[in-house]
């Protein structure tokens, strides 16, 4: 028997708990949300203690949070199996101390993160997150973010199976990280990516691959931190292929950078996997970096190194990326005891040439020849060294470092510091504006949810109980050519338009639906995929409703007897089994996402949008009650869509599963567009990766060809590029599609079974892809 394990009980779902939780699905009740009868929202402090119901209670409160709420976590250990999501502004999550309030994800089953947040004016303080499958705390696209007294840790010591990042603000603005601890990350303990205006202070990063990493970031102060026992201590990187590039204005000062000699345990394929053990401060490609008043000691390979991205010897075709570090000022540091046991290919090679200890400050010697004036770089773009005690210097002269020159005795690294002595104008301190005035809760968008009916049957969408999914009058069934894969579920799709309103045709993107539109999708499993007449098990019905303020979406979970479905606030799971198309019995737990998880996939430029109903993907026939007809032609004939041309002149998306619907490239691109591009696009939640899988994208690099991964962690599968033409076994894309690892599988929500047919098709596509660039 199937079993429903919903995160929401009948007793808990009262009117009060529905505020901010569901969708106003009925057209009439929707309009009441802004009337004077709507409840007034008042911020409050909510207190939580450990217990078996904590995950549900806490995630429900995260969904219902309003600006000004404080979520107080009492001392104790909280066990969670699924990642947490927060999207509301002006929320504080507070514990009783980083060693007293502990959120452990040791038995995580869903979500590759501990906490994923995107609200502005966010404060996270005085608690710990341990043993997540991937990232511990990720904050995406938020302004005014404070991490204070937070600890992230993988408690089993340094392992390549640990999560990638501890504290991970990305594409944020005004970020303060203070008095935090990060331990055991397989990439970076504290990682600040593509962010503007940052302070990292009084933190400790230990036993990570990278202790603190500032990447593609503008305006950062990193000071009074202790970084020790990492592979690399402080890293300031700039990487190609990202939305925010050419980071600059970074100050590293008054830090203790001690004994960062841990063997590199990053999964292969990640950028930090190339960092030599024993790296103290590593600056790569970033401009305007000032390093001063630091205590740097006993880092076995390179105490301080300044290198271009070219030293990575990785392909990049990002025309807007500047690979050279310029305007680097290193002064008044205490540097000692380093370079005694060099690591990595370069370290060992330099050891054989110059001996040990290696000099304290290393420069790869690569400069942008186009910027030379009278044969020299302008002073403001140069490397300048001053008052670093007895620190020695090494110019690797990387462009001439090759076996032929070494064998011929023509290679001689430069050790004369004189050309680099001098000063640059000190960078200005970073000033944050963190204390934005909290905005009061308004009786508009935040109150859209309160009138949602508890039972699906109250919406009147189906005839009878709805078990047959026969639409009621005014409910229009439809289907898609290429669909979003969800563990081999079947899907019933419907549209309900408000009376007298029409859809406006759009040739690209989601059709322009009128306010009041409802999109309905029911998920089910056929009892026997070989014989649909054997019936099906309905799992959930998701509703998307368009209001003046935007789209809203939520789910109803079908009961065991299949007589109705109940509104679900915190999501849930449905145990189900079926006979697959190969005749074998299969079973799974179907995940019903919580409201905030829905937003993570349906977000485009921080606004909720539907994914499926695009003209090109709806340009197909459907078997209506009256007979077979093209769906767009039907809408036009029924006067339900305006400005629509005839279907014959409308683009038709390829069917990835039908070899007669298009060529191999068209079928694969259709699949990637439908299944991946809602996140992997400039406005999606995976925009920080720079990978763009929209059908309209024509740049091979943005599609992943020879593109290096960003923030992949174990998701790289030990591979160096997203797509390697001709070699699917070396392409990260294939690993992501085939993996069952929480930290790697894609999509990471609603996907617990490998879509083998898509894997086979994309494997063939990469195998046959023209190999325009030779692999190194």
CA-to-CA gap between the ends?
54 Å
If helices are DSSP runs of H or I spanning 4 or more residues, what is the number of helices?
Answer: 11
Question: Strand content of the residues, in percent?
Answer: 25-35%
Q: What's the main sheet like? A: 12 strands, parallel
Please summarize what this structure is.
Residues 111-236 form the Right handed beta helix domain. The chain is mainly beta. The protein has a twelve-stranded parallel sheet, with helices on one face. An eleven-stranded parallel sheet has the order 5-8-11-14-17-20-23-26-29-32-34.
Overview of the structural elements:
Residues 111-236 form the Right handed beta helix domain. It holds the Pfam family Beta_helix. It comes from Gimesia aquarii. InterPro entries: Beta_helix (IPR039448), Multihaem_cyt_sf (IPR036280), PbH1 (IPR006626), Pectin_lyas_fold (IPR012334), Pectin_lyase_fold/virulence (IPR011050), SO_2930-like_C (IPR022269), SO_2930-like_dom (IPR022442). This is Right handed beta helix domain-containing protein. It is built from 11 helices and 48 strands. The strands form 8 sheets. It has a 12-stranded parallel β-sheet with strand order 2-3-6-9-12-15-18-21-24-27-30-33, covered by helices on one side. It has an 11-stranded parallel β-sheet with strand order 5-8-11-14-17-20-23-26-29-32-34. The protein has 3 domains: 154-420; 446-649, no CATH class; 664-768, no CATH class. The longest helix has 13 residues, at 756-768. β39 and β40 form a beta hairpin. 11% of the residues lie in helices and 30% in strands. The relative contact order is 0.10. The protein is mostly beta strands and 776 residues long. The two termini are 54 Å apart.
């Amino acid at each position: 028997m199937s079993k429903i394990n919903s995160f929401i009980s009948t007793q808990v779902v009262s009117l009060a708990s529905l505020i901010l939780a569901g969708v106003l699905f009925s057209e009439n009740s929707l309009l009441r949300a802004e009337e004077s009868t709507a409840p007034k929202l008042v911020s409050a402090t909510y207190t939580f203690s450990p217990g078996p119901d904590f995950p549900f209670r806490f995630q429900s409160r995260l969904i219902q949070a309003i600006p000004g709420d404080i979520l107080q976590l009492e001392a104790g250990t909280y066990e969670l199996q699924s990642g947490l999501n927060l999207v509301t502004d002006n929320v504080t999550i507070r514990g009783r101390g980083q060693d007293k309030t502990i959120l452990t994800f040791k038995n995580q089953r869903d979500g590759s993160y501990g906490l994923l947040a995107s609200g502005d004016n966010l404060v996270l303080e005085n608690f710990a997150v341990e043993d997540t499958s991937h990232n511990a705390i990720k904050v995406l696209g938020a302004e005014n973010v404070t991490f204070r007294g937070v600890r992230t840790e993988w408690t089993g010591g340094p392992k390549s199976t640990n999560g990638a990042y501890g504290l991970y603000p990305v594409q944020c603005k005004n970020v303060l990280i203070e008095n935090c601890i990060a331990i055991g990350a397989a990439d970076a303990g504290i990682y600040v990516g593509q962010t503007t205006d940052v302070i990292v202070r009084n933190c400790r990063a230990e036993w990570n691959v990278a202790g603190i990493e500032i990447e593609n970031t503008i305006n950062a102060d990193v000071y009074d931190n202790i970084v020790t026992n990492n592979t690399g201590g402080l890293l300031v990187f700039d990487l190609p292929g990202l939305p925010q590039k050419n980071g600059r204005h970074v100050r590293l000062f008054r830090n203790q950078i001690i004994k960062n000699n841990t063997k590199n345990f990053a999964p292969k394929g990640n950028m930090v996997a190339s960092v030599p053990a024993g790296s103290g401060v590593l600056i790569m490609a970033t401009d305007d970096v000032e390093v001063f008043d630091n205590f740097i000691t006993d880092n076995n390979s390179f105490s301080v190194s300044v290198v271009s991205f070219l030293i990575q010897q990785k392909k990049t075709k990002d025309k807007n990326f500047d690979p050279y570090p310029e305007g680097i000022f290193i002064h008044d540091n205490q540097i000692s005891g380093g370079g005694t046991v060099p690591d990595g290919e370069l370290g060992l090679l330099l050891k054989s040439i110059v001996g040990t200890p290696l000099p304290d400050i290393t420069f790869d010697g690569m400069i942008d020849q186009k910027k030379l004036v009278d044969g020299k770089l302008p002073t403001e773009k140069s490397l300048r060294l001053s008052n670093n005690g007895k620190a020695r210097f090494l110019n690797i002269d990387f462009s001439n470092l090759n076996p032929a020159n070494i064998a011929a005795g023509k290679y001689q690294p430069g050790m004369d510091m004189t050309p680099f002595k001098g000063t640059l104008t000190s960078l200005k301190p970073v000033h944050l504006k963190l204390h934005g005035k909290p905005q009061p809760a308004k009786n508009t968008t935040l109150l859209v949810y309160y009138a949602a009916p508890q039972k699906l049957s109250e919406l009147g969408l189906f005839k009878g109980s709805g078990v047959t999914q026969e639409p009621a009058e005014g409910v229009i069934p439809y289907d898609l050519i290429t669909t979003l894969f969800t563990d081999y579920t079947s899907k019933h799709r419907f549209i309900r338009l408000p009376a007298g309103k029409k859809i406006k045709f759009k040739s690209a993107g989601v059709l322009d639906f009128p306010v009041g539109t409802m999109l309905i999708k029911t998920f089910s499993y056929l009892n026997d995929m070989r014989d649909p007449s054997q019936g099906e098990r309905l799992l959930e019905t998701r509703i998307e409703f368009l209001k003046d303020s935007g789209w809203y979406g939520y789910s109803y979970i079908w009961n065991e007897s299949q007589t109705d479905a109940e509104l679900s606030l915190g999501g849930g799971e449905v145990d189900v089994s079926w006979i697959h198309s190969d005749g074998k019995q299969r079973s799974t737990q179907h995940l019903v996402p919580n409201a905030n998880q829905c937003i993570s996939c349906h977000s485009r430029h921080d606004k909720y949008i539907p994914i499926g109903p695009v003209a090109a993907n709806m340009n197909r026939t459907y078997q209506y009650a009256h007979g077979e007809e093209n769906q767009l032609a039907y809408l036009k004939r029924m006067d339900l869509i305006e400005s629509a041309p005839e279907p014959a002149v409308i683009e038709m998306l390829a069917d990835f599963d039908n070899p007669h619907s298009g060529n191999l490239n068209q079928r694969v691109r259709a699949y990637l567009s439908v299944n991946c591009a809602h996140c992997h696009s400039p406005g999606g939640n995976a925009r920080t990766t720079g990978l763009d899988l929209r059908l309209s994208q024509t740049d091979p690099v943005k599609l992943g060809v020879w593109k290096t991964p960003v923030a992949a962690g174990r998701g790289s599968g030990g591979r160096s590029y997203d797509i390697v033409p001709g070699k699917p076994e070396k392409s990260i894309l294939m690993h992501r599609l085939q993996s069952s690892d929480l930290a790697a599988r894609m999509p990471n929500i609603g996907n617990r079974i490998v879509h083998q047919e898509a894997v086979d098709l994309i494997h063939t596509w990469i195998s046959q892809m023209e190999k325009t660039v030779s692999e190194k």
